[in-house]
Amino acid sequence: MKKYQSVRGMRDILPNESKAFRSLEDKLISSASQYGFQEIKTPILEDTNLFIKSIGGGTDIVEKEMYSFIDSKNNSISMRPEGTASCARALIENGLNDTINKIWYSGPFFRHERPQKGRYRQFHQFGIEFIGVENFEADFEIISLANNMWRNLNINPTLTINSIGDSDDRKKYINVLVEYLKKYENSFNENEKNKLKLNPLRILDTKNIKTLEILEQAPKISEYISKESKTHFENLLRLLGDNNIEYIKEEKLVRGLDYYNRTVFEYIDDSDNTQNTICAGGRYDFLFENLCDKKLPALGFAIGIERLIEYTKYEEKDDRIKSFYIITLSEKDHLYSLNIANLIRNISKKFIVSSSYSYKNIKSQLKKADKLSSDYCVIIGQEESKNNTCQIKNMNSGDQKNIGIDAIEQYIRNEICFKE
Ligand code: ATP
Ligand code: MG
What we know:
Blueprint: H1 15-34, E1 38-39, E2 45-47, H2 48-55, H3 60-65, E3 68-70, E4 76-79, H4 84-93, E5 102-110, E6 122-131, H5 136-152, E7 158-163, H6 167-182, H7 190-198, H8 209-216, H9 227-242, E8 248-249, E9 261-268, E10 277-283, H10 287-292, E11 298-304, H11 305-312, E12 322-328, H12 334-347, E13 351-355, H13 362-371, E14 376-380, H14 382-386, E15 389-394, E16 400-404, H15 408-415
Helix pairs in contact: 1-5, 5-9
Adenosine-5'-triphosphate binds at residues 82, 111, 113, 118-120, 123, 125, 256, 275, 277-280, 302, 304, 306-307.
């Protein structure tokens, strides 16, 4: 019979990982909420033109990574490759762009890329968008929010930051950059040659050592950005410094999406993972204008959840969570064992209680409990149910005690020194 497999690049997130996933997401939500951000959920599918108009036609995403299809009414529809364009569309469409200015989102995104560690075709992002504030203080606020998130997760990724100026500055810079790079076109690979035509800034992103050497002498974007952009950037860097937020100024950081201007930044993990950008963002003061003819400055960032999990090797660290496995040796004691299960669940929400329904020999049931990594087994045999007791076995130490039903709560509280 045909064995079905998940589509290439799309993964199942199994309970082990999903636990880490949810707990990590909860922490990100908690930081975002403390900074006044509210949740938005937008559809997976959008009009393809929304992404072309906002992300830009010459970008990797639009050029080759989108899952697009024509629906039965001949409309071109795409599965969202990122969240910012959809958020802007939703705020404009619902007339909320003046009233709601801080939002977060979390969910799956889709890009048809070559799957590898840290790079999937369905992946998850947690993102925030801050709309309506032009001042550099807003840039500072979202970077402090990101730092607050890292603190909550006990990690310390490196902030790299740059200013790419406004679109006129960039046009000027692109002209001189292309002029310079054209001299070396012959040593470029096909991909870079293509970028030189479609999106020359992206060449700055290269990992190709030969090209990196060529870039050493290339004109620098900082020499082409306007006075206003420069002041904005310098003020931001000063504020970061005043608040002891470390950063690395990276002239070659340009980001791949057309809608960015002025501040762009990334957080890089210090592991040797090749896909080590865990968060990326920046300002996009012209996106709203582009979509609705109304100028509205904005900025935001998106975190790649899979990469963050990989980086933090995040595990549920709440050691108050304990799991109990109830082993009943005779079917007729089922009700009695259910009562004990509920009694334990009622002691604390941190207790996870599951029951074995096999009524087989105790050895195989203890093995099962071990496989499930249970912390405790509660064993109910004929004697125990007759005497209103149970055996509680600590699976770590092997200690086992007979406890009367009325003493279970006290025993568990003492035994594991449980405090809410
Ligand atoms: P990269 O240069 O790694 O392709 P990007 O510039 O395309 O990244 P963004 O569009 O800025 O990425 O997305 C923000 C974050 O989402 C990235 O920093 C990364 O953590 C995560 N991300 C992007 N694409 C993928 C993917 N295909 N699989 C897993 N995570 C991803
Ligand atoms: Mg990419």
